C-alpha cells in the first residue's frame, strides 16, 4: 500500500477591508507602471517594424508586438477590475455609513416614542384625576344647592302649628345635624 502525501495547503489569511484596499492600490500602481512600460516597448517595436524590410525579422517583431498587445489588454483588464473593487469598496462604506445613521435614528425614535408614551400615561392620569375632581365638585354643588333650598325653607318657616310644621322641624333638625357633621369633617 502506498500513501500519497499532498503538500499542506496554507490557510488563507483573512484580510480586513482596509488591507484589501491598500493592497489593491499598490497593485493598481504596479499595473499602471507595467502598462506604461509595455506601451513604450510596443511603441519601439512598432517603430522597428517600420524600419525593417525583411520578412523574417518583421514577423518576429509582429509576433512580439501581438504578445505585448495581449499583455497590455490583460493589464488594462486588471486595472479595470481593481477600479471596480475600489468603487465597490467606496459604495459599501457609504452603505455602512447610511446603515449606522439609520440605526442611530431608530434608537432616537424609540427613545422619543417611549417619552411620548410616558407623557401620554401622565396626561391620562391627570385627566382621570380631573374627571374625579369634577364629579366630586358636581356632587358638592348639588349638595350645596339642596342645603340652600333647605335653608330657604328654614328661614321662611312660620310658627303656626300644623302637621307640615312638625315635618319642617324634623327636616330642619336633620339639616342642622348634616351641617354639624360637615363642619366636623
Automatic annotation (TrEMBL):
Subcellular location: Cytoplasm
Organism field: Danio rerio
Gene name as annotated: klc4
GO cellular component, one term: kinesin complex
Record keywords: Coiled coil, Cytoplasm, Repeat, TPR repeat
Record protein name field: Kinesin light chain 4
The keyword Repeat is assigned to this record: yes
Organism superkingdom: Eukaryota
Coiled coil: 85-147
Region (Disordered): 154-185
Amino acid at each position: 500500500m502506498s500513501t500519497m502525501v499532498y503538500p499542506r495547503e496554507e490557510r488563507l489569511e483573512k484580510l480586513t477591508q482596509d488591507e484589501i484596499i491598500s493592497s489593491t492600490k499598490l497593485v493598481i500602481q504596479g499595473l499602471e507602471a507595467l502598462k506604461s512600460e509595455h506601451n513604450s516597448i510596443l511603441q519601439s517595436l512598432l517603430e522597428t517594424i517600420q524600419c525593417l524590410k525583411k520578412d523574417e525579422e518583421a514577423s518576429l517583431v509582429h509576433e512580439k508586438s501581438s504578445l505585448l498587445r495581449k499583455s497590455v489588454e490583460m493589464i488594462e483588464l486588471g486595472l479595470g477590475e481593481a477600479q471596480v473593487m475600489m468603487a465597490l469598496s467606496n459604495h459599501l462604506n457609504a452603505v455602512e455609513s447610511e446603515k449606522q445613521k439609520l440605526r442611530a435614528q431608530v434608537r432616537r425614535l424609540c427613545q422619543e416614542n417611549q417619552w411620548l408614551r410616558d407623557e401620554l400615561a401622565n396626561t391620562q392620569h391627570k385627566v382621570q384625576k380631573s374627571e374625579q375632581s369634577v364629579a366630586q365638585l358636581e356632587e358638592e354643588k348639588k349638595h350645596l344647592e339642596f342645603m340652600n333650598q333647605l335653608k330657604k325653607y328654614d328661614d321662611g318657616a312660620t310658627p303656626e302649628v300644623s302637621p307640615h310644621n312638625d315635618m319642617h322641624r324634623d327636616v330642619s333638625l336633620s339639616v342642622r345635624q348634616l351641617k354639624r357633621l360637615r363642619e366636623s369633617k
